[in-house]
Specification:
Layout: H1 3-10, H2 14-17, H3 21-29, E1 38-42, H4 50-55, E2 59-64, H5 67-79, E3 85-89, E4 103-109, H6 118-127, E5 129-140, H7 147-158, H8 175-184, E6 192-204, H9 207-217, H10 219-230, H11 234-248, E7 256-268
Helix pairs in contact: 1-10, 7-10, 7-11, 9-10, 9-11, 10-11
Bound molecules: S-adenosylmethionine.
Residues 4, 8, 13, 17, 20, 43-45, 48-49, 64-66, 69, 91-93, 109-111, 114-115 line the site of S-adenosylmethionine.
């Protein structure tokens, strides 16, 4: 089995995505998505950004490598009566099912960054775009002090080193790497721009309960707990994550955890 697919099917990302809905909607609101635009949401999960795009009238295709998330996305779209939003399985490194120059917008929020072969991913995003179209990526930033970069950093300290040749997803959060990848796909460097933005996670319950969701449902953290278990270090991992979540929680309410996280928003207009 493709390890990338296995990682994301291992958990149930919906349980994390439920905490990301408000920011997903707010981000889509900034993208000028209007009725009739063809939008490809890559690494769409269960539709945190695909569904808000469809609600604004776009004709949306969500592509994701995880079969369970594709099914969850289609179920959500059906329940909301969004006939203009469909989800299908596919790999960002090779989207042969999507024709050349066929979409107005490619949106990939914390999605394509997790695919291997980043140069192939950039090439595919550019290939499917119509003239005049644009690509928006949201990418976590390596060593950023906010939530997700720190979760991934803590988790990787507990997991065995990746195989040789593995390119860290976090390299998509480095402007020079992003530029190099899109330039290699034929985009002039001046057509690539960057902005820092914030995504806020809102989860009912305490910070420790939010950690529990990551422990039970988020592939990278699940793998870290599996490895920590073998090394007898579960309490250490749990403690580090609980300290992180507690320190970053901005909610004034005891029954709610609210944590903002900084990401790099990339806009490409080839
Ligand atoms: C952190 S989740 C983000 C999901 C969604 N964009 C959101 O914001 O809720 C990462 C997603 O990327 C998907 N993914 C990882 N590698 C992929 C690949 N090679 N091709 C397509 N999707 C991929 C995962 O299955 C997962 O749904």
């Amino acid at each position: 089995m493709n390890p990338n697919k296995a990682l994301w099917e291992k958990g149930d990302f919906t349980r994390i995505a439920e905490t990301m809905r408000e920011s997903g909607d707010a981000l889509v609101g900034k993208l000028g998505i209007t009725k009739g635009l063809k939008v490809l949401d890559l690494g769409c999960g269960d539709g945190t950004t695909a569904i808000p795009a469809a609600k604004r009238g776009a004709d949306v295709l969500g592509v994701d490598i995880a079969g369970n998330l594709v099914a969850a996305g289609n179920k959500r779209a059906k329940e909301m009566g969004l006939a203009n939003c469909r989800f299908q399985e596919g790999d960002a490194t090779d989207m042969r099912e999507v024709e050349d120059r066929s979409v107005d917008r490619v949106v990939s929020i914390f999605g394509a960054m997790f695919a291997p072969k980043p140069f192939e991913v950039a090439k595919e995003m550019v290939r499917v775009l119509r003239p005049g179209g644009s690509i928006t990526m949201g990418n976590w930033i390596p060593n950023d002090p906010t939530l997700v970069a720190q979760i991934l950093k803590i988790s990787s300290a507990f997991t065995p080193p990746p195989p040789e040749g593995f390119v860290s997803p976090m390299t998509w959060g480095v402007e020079s790497n992003v530029t190099e990848r899109f330039v290699a796909a034929g985009v002039p460097a001046e057509k690539i721009s960057f902005e820092r933005d914030t995504f806020t996670f809102n989860c009912p319950g305490t910070p420790a309960e939010f950690v529990d969701r990551f422990k039970r449902y988020y592939g990278p953290t699940m793998n870290a707990f599996d490895a920590a278990e073998k090394g007898g270090r579960v309490a250490d991992l749990q403690g580090q994550l609980e300290d992180l979540f507690t320190a970053q929680n901005k909610s004034q309410r005891k029954d709610m955890t609210s944590i903002p996280a900084t990401y790099l928003r990339v806009t490409v207009t080839p």
